[in-house]
Design goal:
By secondary structure, this protein is α/β, with parallel strands linked by helices. It contains three helices and nine strands. The protein has a three-stranded parallel sheet. Strand 4 and strand 5 form a beta hairpin. The longest helix has 18 residues. The chain is globular and about 45 Å long. The two termini are 22 Å apart.
Length: 164
Amino acid sequence: VLLVHASGNDGKDLEPGTGNRNFPSAFLNDGAQAPVWLEIGASADDLTALAAPFSNYGQTRVDLFAPGAQVTSLAPGGGIQTADGTSFASPVVAGVAALVLTYFPDLTAEQLRAIIVDSATRYAGAESGRPGDGELVRFGTLSVTGGVVNAAEAVRLAMERTGS
């Protein structure tokens, strides 16, 4: 099973030594990392900003970003709402995982994780406001991939890797 987890909405760096943590986490007490976990930050609704200002981040702790700002969805109790949060971004990635598995049901959780990570659209060298303080930094310093989820590329990569 692939676990897709929201990184949190505190605008904090989750790197070791910062004192900032988000639970649950892919990292165990002994430092080992769960091999089937994706930690997701929220990308902004404006690609010139890339990272949403509220999203937690971390060059080794957040795997990739997905749309999580100004997301219109169903509201509790009925109706619709527009809101922000990594809890909106992580279901986007979970949806991409479900899409890929629909067409490639024999993929393992590890293979699926690799496809999603490897297919992210890379913006590592682009400048983005760092969540929390807005200082301009390279987007690649905010996550493992420096990328944003890409559903079409994930399907293409799954086709390539499975020979379909």
